[in-house]
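Write out this protein's structure.
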Amino acid sequence: MLDRLITTAPPKNREAEALKGWARHEKRMEREVRIRTGAAG
């Protein structure tokens, strides 16, 4: 059954995906700090 699951998508670059994930994390934490501290942004 699993041998039928085929994708045509190119493999992802792990380093690039990790950097994008880190950037999303930083942005989310920045927003959380502004919300919790009441800082205007």
